[in-house]
UniProtKB/TrEMBL annotation:
The lineage of its organism: Eukaryota, Fungi, Dikarya, Ascomycota, Saccharomycotina. It comes from the Eukaryota. GO terms for cellular component: cytosol. There is a cross-link at residue 101 (Glycyl lysine isopeptide (Gly-Lys) (interchain with K-? in acceptor proteins)). Pfam families: Urm1. Belongs to the URM1 family. Gene3D superfamilies: 3.10.20.30. Acts as a sulfur carrier required for 2-thiolation of mcm(5)S(2)U at tRNA wobble positions of cytosolic tRNA(Lys), tRNA(Glu) and tRNA(Gln). Serves as sulfur donor in tRNA 2-thiolation reaction by being thiocarboxylated (-COSH) at its C-terminus by the MOCS3 homolog UBA4. The sulfur is then transferred to tRNA to form 2-thiolation of mcm(5)S(2)U. Prior mcm(5) tRNA modification by the elongator complex is required for 2-thiolation. Also acts as a ubiquitin-like protein (UBL) that is covalently conjugated via an isopeptide bond to lysine residues of target proteins such as AHP1. This is Ubiquitin-related modifier 1. Its main location: cytoplasm. It is found in: Cytoplasm. The modification 1-thioglycine is found at residue 101. It comes from Pichia sorbitophila (strain ATCC MYA-4447 / BCRC 22081 / CBS 7064 / NBRC 10061 / NRRL Y-12695) (Hybrid yeast).
Length: 101
């Protein structure tokens, strides 16, 4: 059946998904089996529209430094980082803190 989640890109990070800020997604895993690491892999394979944009989001197999990651409005480090176990209805927000000038 999969796990229903929402993924948001803020702070200009929506450029990696053709300008779309909110994505309702279904992870093809069962609840209790998926972690934030699985969400990140799902995003790189299914949400990022141009493979050339993957390095904007990922560095060394994790979210690039300079991108704030929130799980249900809480910093991901307080929730276990990539090891957070995903639940249906979770909201994952990725916000770029780097701004060009």
């Amino acid at each position: 059946m999969g796990i229903k989640i929402k993924v948001e890109f803020l702070g200009g990070l929506d450029v990696i998904s053709s300008g779309v800020r909110e994505h309702k997604c279904i992870l093809p895993l069962e609840e209790g089996d998926a972690t934030l690491k699985d969400v990140i892999q799902f995003i790189t394979k299914n949400v990022i529209t141009d493979p050339k944009d993957i390095p904007v989001f990922i560095c060394d197999e994790t979210v690039r430094p300079g991108i704030l990651v929130l799980i249900n409005d809480t910093d991901w480090e307080l929730e276990g980082g990539e090891d957070y176990v995903v639940e249906s209805g979770d909201v994952f927000t990725f916000t770029s803190t780097l701004h060009g000038g």
